[in-house]
Amino acid sequence: MSEILNATLPRGNTSCFTEQNFNRLLVTMKDKAYPEGTHLFWEGDFSDKLFYIKRGRVKLTKSTDEGKELILYMYGRGDMVGQADPFFSTKHSFTAEVIEDCEIGVIEQKDLEIMICQHCDFAIDFMKWMGIHHRLTQTKFRDLMMYGKPGALCSTLIRLSNTYGEQHGDTILINKKITHTDLSNMIGATRESVNRMLSDLRKKDALEYENGMIVIKDLVMLQDICHCELCPNEICRI
Question: Measured between alpha carbons, how far is 105 from 28 in angstroms, rounded to an integer?
Answer without folding.
Answer: 9
